[in-house]
Structures are given as structure tokens and as C-alpha cells.
Specification:
Blueprint (H helix, E strand, L loop, with lengths): L1 H4 L25 H29 L15 H22 L11 H10 L1 H27 L10 E2 L8 E2 L2 H23 L12 H11 L3 H8 L3 H8 L1 H43 L15 H30 L4 E2 L2 E2 L8 H9 L4 H17 L1 H9 L8 H21 L13 H9 L28 H11 L9 H12 L2 H24 L10 H10 L6 H21 L9 H21 L17 H21 L3 H4 L3 H10 L23 H12 L1
Antiparallel strand pairs: 1-2, 3-4
Helix pairs in contact: 2-3, 2-11, 3-5, 3-11, 4-5, 5-6, 6-10, 6-11, 7-8, 7-9, 10-11, 12-13, 12-15, 13-21, 15-21, 15-22, 21-23, 22-23, 22-25, 23-25
Main location: nucleus
Membrane topology: Multi-pass membrane protein
Family: Belongs to the NDC1 family.
């Protein structure tokens, strides 16, 4: 019966509830494409470094057999894997502290001070120093483990048959050497800012690098390098610099750091610790013994030099390999990273442009520039996609590009002529302070109610504690009490008048100032100079890292999109944004030129001259913005009236886009100011010539 009533059976499809609506797919974040790409580059660079470690393992090998001395499946392969571990420590440091923009600060000394005083920077500094010192120690263990018995690098020196065993000081010296080399390399890493990923910003970078590589060697070597992948070509071009820096680190580390520091500071401590460990494994050692001295000094000197040079070479090669592979364009199989998906690739790109993190945002602008200049089909989709949450694709991309450009003027307007940040309290806060000023003063008598307090005019009774306090405060307040400060002041007035004392103080201050200027003029004082270039770049491109690369790619991408919209924007939604683009570019040029012209040099910049106002980074960005503004004015100048631009704005834009010859910044301008075409036909011809 229950079955007949249908209670135990599931309802039919016609009686079931309506199916839920299909959830809308979430736009994939840009980091979902960038992170796997960086992982692939990390793996590729690790493979190249492993090959270098395999070559190093052959050099430090002890096998006399020719085949087994290099065969990877054997002792050579094991040593190569062990040597890769110190190199991975370098990769860990690079990944943890990776950034794109140049480090901006008012000077090297202030940058070093921030690295050890600010909590975030201090953690990064300790992280770098710790990994480098550990890397040096681990390399030393592998290096001494790979040595021959006759190299005298064992912990215990058994000596001859009739001699008593003793602790060997040679490995102690080598361990201290490799650890101190790690400290020196970490200092150089932080000072030179190895953590920066140098992204190219000029189209002709690849051509200039190839010509540099070809000129660095013979024709045969150049033809051989041309057959290698581009990344290996870059590494080959940097090989001379890698070897030079490694040799310099070796010489400085041994002669000027390790020898004095070891014998003056570390020897006793390192000996006592090692002796304690040695007695735990070799009980025949005496309870205590002083350092025995270095054995076979000539052989030890060669071991120290060769090991230190090999370690420095691996460090420099690891840093160079990581920098070369990570700084590759955001492409996968010749296509933009976001082309990997068919569903809303532009939406993923927009999430990268809006990212708060520097690395994904910079790579997103780089990919946008590549799309705008090399992938026409993908570029056209930017103008077609108008139905998107938050605005059309063009609108959101344009807003992000203009925001990057506008930040330049905002940062410049927030400082005065001395580069100091202007702090202005809001009026609302001032009014609130005035309103609460009454609560700060003493309470008024009228607020207490006189009728309620009949004893107000009577002298209050004092207890014992108040009496003691009154007596203590009364000491020294009588007219006849002795005031030592006043006596010293009267004695000083009797010896020297006040005017003469002020003159002496001024002379001493002038003398101290002259000493400071002489110190700043010396090579040692260079780190303490707050040069004009440091201060101007820090204000223009922000701190702690510059966004110069992001601005360059934003300007170039926006310029290309604006010009191509004349023929590719089917819905005509770009023209209304052209006036805003022209005004923003013009304002950025005006702000940068005014700032470099009016910024006053710091007193520590003792070698300043008016030629120093031509800052290379600022001039480079100015050249890019002027080129973009000129191209947009050429394309839309004849439609200025219809677009809402006045004649004055067009004239100001043309004046701002005028470019002159420069001697720095990486771009060669014209020898004279460029003449803007006067008629529309000439403008169209120039625009077509630029596209071609």
C-alpha cells in the first residue's frame, strides 16, 4: 500500500524542483598565468645552474679515471647535486625579495640605514645575509669532503707514527673563509640591489645586446653564439663580467677580510668550538690545546683561492641566470600569457593591471604593450568588448594607464622645492581642535556652582603628605636661594660677552661645515651625498622602488591604442577619452620639467652643477611621453574642435611634445626641435609612416 501511494519512490522529473541557475564563471586572476610562467623560468634557470655545478664538480673531483671523473651517474653527479644546494639558497633570496623597479632613496647611506632600521627591510636583510653565509658554509663542507687525503683538510691531523694526534686548523680557516665570503657577497647583493629584475624598456634592446655580444668576441665565436637560445646568448655576453666580479670578491675576501678578521677576531672562538666537536668524535685528543697553526701554507693558499673563486663564480652565475630567465617577456609559445584561455583573456589582463603587487602589475603592463604592438587580432578585441562589469575593456585599460601617468604629477605636487613632503592638516581637523580647545584649559569657577559650595573661599585643610610636598617645593624658590645655572651664566658673561660667544659658535659651525664638505668631496663620502638624481627620481617615480618601467609601458600601450582606434574602434567609444589623454600627458610633461628645473639641491650634494638637472631616468620617461603625445596630436589634431579641445590646449600639447637632442636616457633625439606638420594631409602621412 505504501508503494501504491508512492511514498517510498522518488518523485518524477516533472515533479522535481527547477534546476538552479548556472553560476557565472569567475574571471581568472592574472597571477594564475604569471605564477606558472615564473615557475617554468625558475626550473629552466635551475637546470642551467645545475650544468655549471656539474662542471665545477669535475674540477674539484679526485677520481683519476677519465670516464668516471665526468660521468654524471656517479661521484661527479652527486657532487653536482650537492653544489646545486648553495646555488638554490641564492634563488631563495631572489624569489623572496624580487622586485622590478630600481631602488629609490635619497642616497646609498640612507638606503643602508633603512635596511637595518625598518622592520620589514631588516627582516629582508637578515634573510639575505643568513642564506648567503649558510651557502658559503655548505659549499665549504662539500669542497673539503671532495678533497684528497694528502690535501690535509681532515679534522684530525694524525701526524707521523711517533706524533700525537692534534686538531687540524686548515679546515677551520677554510670554513671561516667561506662564511665570511658569504657575508661579503650578501653585502654586495644588498648594495648593488641584485634583487631587481631589469626589464627592458626599449624596442632595440635585443638588437643592441646582439651587437654587443658579436663585438665582444671573434667572428667564429659570434657565429657559434648566434645558434644558441637568446637566454644563453645573454649569459655568454655577461660571462666576462661574472668572472671579473668573482675574481674581485676572491681577492678582497681573502686578503682584506678573512686574514685580518680570522687571526684577530675569529681564531680563538672557532678553534674552541671545533675542538669541542673534535673531542666528541676523537677521544685521543688532549683536554685542551692552543691553535697549532696552518699546515702546508702554500697548498692551503691555493686551496683557499681556488675554492673562494669557484664559490664566487657559482654565486654570480646563479644571480645572472635567474635575472636573465625571469626578465623574459610575458609570452608562452610566442603568444601572450592570457591567450592561454579563450574565455575573457582581457578580463584576466585587467586584473593584472589593477594588482596592488609590483611584479604582476608590471608584467601585465608589459603584456599589454606587447599585445598592442604585435598582436593585431587581440588588440581589436579591446575596442569590441563593451559589455563588461565596471566599464568597457577600453575604458578600464585607459583608466589604469592614465592612473599610472597621473601619479607622477601627484607625487611632484606633494613636495616643495627642497623635495620635502608637504604636510597640511585638514580644515575639519583644525575646526575640531578649536571646538575641543575649551576642554584643555583649567575648569572655570562658574562651572562648580557657588551656591552649592559655601566653603569655596575657605582655605583647605592640609594633611601630612601635602605639608611635606609644599615644604619640598619651597626649597630654592626664595629670593636668597642659590641658583647654580644663574651663577654659571653670570660668570660666562664676565669672561666673554654674549656677542663674542655667538661669534665663536658661528666660527666653530663654519669650521665643522668645511670639514663635512671636504669629507663629502672625498670618494668615501660619496655614499653620504644626497645627489640631485637620487632625490628627483625618488619623488618622480615613488619609493621604495621606482615605477618607471610601468609608466613607460603604460604610455606606449595607451598611445598605440589611441592611434589605432581611428581604424579599429567600431563603436567609436575612444574619441571622447582623447582630450583626457592629451591633457594628462601634457600635465605630466609640464610637472616633470618644472620639477627638475626648480628643485633645489641638497647641501650634501657638494659636486652639484646645473648639468646634473638632466636626470637620465626622468629624461627617458619624458622622451617616451613626448613621443606618445606627439603621435596622438598628429593623429587627432584636426579633430580637436569636435573632441572638445581648445586651441590653447592643442598649442600647449604641441609645445610640450617638442623634443630636443639629449645625451642621456638611452634614446637619441633629433639634433633640432622637431617641426610639427602644419596640414592634415602631412599629419596623416606621418601617422601612416609611423605605423609602417
Amino acid at each position: 500500500m505504501a508503494a501504491s501511494n508512492g511514498v517510498l519512490f522518488a518523485p518524477r522529473a516533472s515533479q522535481s524542483a527547477p534546476a538552479a541557475a548556472k553560476p557565472q564563471e569567475r574571471t581568472r586572476l592574472y597571477k594564475d598565468f604569471l605564477t606558472p610562467a615564473l615557475h617554468r623560468r625558475f626550473t629552466s634557470s635551475a637546470g642551467i645552474v645545475l650544468a655549471a655545478c656539474w662542471l665545477a664538480s669535475i674540477l674539484i673531483g679526485t677520481n683519476s679515471h677519465i670516464f668516471w671523473s665526468w660521468f654524471p651517474i656517479g661521484a661527479a653527479g652527486v657532487r653536482a647535486i650537492l653544489l646545486l644546494i648553495p646555488c638554490m639558497a641564492v634563488f631563495i633570496v631572489r624569489v623572496a625579495n624580487m622586485h622590478v623597479g630600481e631602488r629609490t632613496a635619497n642616497g646609498p647611506a640612507l638606503a643602508a640605514l633603512a635596511a637595518i632600521t625598518q622592520s620589514k627591510s631588516l627582516g629582508s636583510t637578515l634573510h639575505t645575509v643568513g642564506w648567503y653565509m649558510w651557502s658559503g658554509w655548505f659549499f665549504g663542507e662539500v669542497y673539503m669532503w671532495s678533497s684528497k687525503p694528502e690535501d690535509s683538510l681532515g679534522m684530525i691531523d694524525l701526524g707521523r707514527t711517533y706524533e700525537r694526534a692534534r686538531l687540524n686548523e686548515n679546515p677551520i680557516f677554510l670554513r671561516c673563509l667561506f662564511v665570511l665570503l658569504g657575508l661579503i657577497q650578501a653585502t654586495r647583493h644588498l648594495a648593488v640591489d641584485y634583487d631587481q629584475i631589469a626589464i627592458p624598456t626599449w624596442i632595440d634592446d635585443a638588437a643592441s645586446q646582439k651587437s654587443e655580444q658579436a663585438s665582444s668576441g671573434s667572428n667564429a665565436s659570434a657565429s657559434l653564439l648566434s645558434k644558441l637560445p637568446p637566454s644563453l646568448q645573454l649569459l655568454a655576453g655577461r660571462s666576462t663580467g661574472i668572472a671579473h666580479r668573482a675574481l674581485k670578491l676572491t681577492v678582497v675576501g681573502i686578503l682584506f677580510v678573512t686574514l685580518p678578521v680570522y687571526f684577530l677576531v675569529l681564531r680563538r672562538t672557532a678553534w674552541s668550538w671545533t675542538y669541542m666537536v673534535g673531542r666528541a668524535f676523537y677521544s685521543q685528543l688532549p683536554p685542551s690545546a692552543p691553535p697549532t697553526g696552518l699546515l702546508n701554507f702554500g697548498r692551503l693558499a691555493w686551496q683557499a683561492f681556488f675554492g673562494a673563486f669557484l664559490l664566487a663564480l657559482l654565486w654570480e652565475f646563479s644571480n645572472a641566470t635567474f635575472a636573465v630567465y625571469v626578465a623574459q617577456p610575458p609570452l608562452k609559445k610566442g603568444q601572450p600569457l592570457t591567450n592561454e584561455i579563450k574565455d575573457d583573456p582581457n578580463g584576466s589582463l585587467i586584473t593584472g593591471l589593477k594588482s596592488k603587487r609590483e611584479v604582476p602589475r608590471t608584467f601585465a603592463f608589459w603584456e599589454l604593450y606587447i599585445i598592442c604592438t604585435q598582436f593585431e587580432v587581440r588588440r581589436k578585441t579591446i575596442f569590441i568588448e563593451v559589455d563588461r562589469a565596471g566599464g568597457s575593456t577600453w575604458r578600464q585599460i585607459c583608466d589604469q594607464c592614465l592612473a599610472e601617468i597621473s601619479k607622477i604629477g601627484q607625487r611632484i605636487n606633494s613636495v616643495d622645492d627642497y623635495g620635502r613632503r608637504i604636510v597640511s592638516a585638514p580644515k575639519t581637523q583644525e575646526l575640531a581642535d578649536d571646538a575641543n580647545a575649551a576642554s584643555i584649559g583649567l575648569p572655570k569657577i562658574a562651572n562648580h556652582g557657588i551656591q552649592d559650595r559655601p566653603d569655596m573661599f575657605l582655605k583647605p585643610k592640609k594633611d601630612l603628605a601635602q605639608a611635606v610636598g609644599t615644604f619640598a617645593k619651597s626649597i630654592g624658590q626664595s629670593p636668597t636661594s642659590h641658583n647654580p645655572v644663574a651663577s654659571i651664566q653670570r660668570s660666562a658673561d664676565q669672561i666673554l660677552p654674549k656677542e663674542q660667544r655667538q661669534r665663536i659658535v658661528q666660527d666653530q659651525f663654519a669650521q665643522a661645515n668645511s670639514y663635512a664638505v671636504k669629507f663629502l668631496q672625498m670618494p668615501v663620502g660619496e655614499a653620504f651625498r644626497q645627489t640631485f638624481a637620487y632625490r628627483a627620481s625618488a619623488v618622480t617615480f615613488g619609493t621604495p622602488h621606482s615605477n618607471r618601467v610601468t609608466v613607460i609601458y603604460a604610455v606606449r600601450a595607451l598611445t598605440k591604442l589611441a592611434v589605432c582606434s581611428l581604424t579599429e574602434a567600431q563603436y567609436g567609444g575612444v574619441s571622447k577619452d582623447i582630450p583626457v589623454i592629451i591633457r594628462t600627458l601634457t600635465a605630466a610633461i609640464r610637472s616633470m620639467e618644472r620639477f627638475t628645473r626648480t628643485l633645489k639641491p641638497d647641501w650634501t650634494d657638494v659636486l652639484f652643477s646645473e648639468r646634473d638637472r638632466e636626470v637620465a631616468d626622468i629624461r627617458q620617461v619624458l622622451e617616451v611621453i613626448k613621443a606618445g603625445l606627439e603621435e596622438i596630436v598628429l593623429a587627432f589634431g584636426e579633430y580637436a574642435g569636435e573632441l572638445g579641445l581648445s586651441k590653447m590646449e592643442v598649442r600647449e600639447a604641441r609645445e610640450a611634445s617638442t623634443r630636443k637632442a639629449i645625451t642621456s636616457g638611452g634614446v637619441a633625439g633629433a639634433a633640432e626641435t622637431k617641426r610639427l606638420p602644419s596640414n592634415s594631409g602631412e599629419r596623416v602621412e606621418m601617422v601612416q609612416r609611423r605605423r609602417g
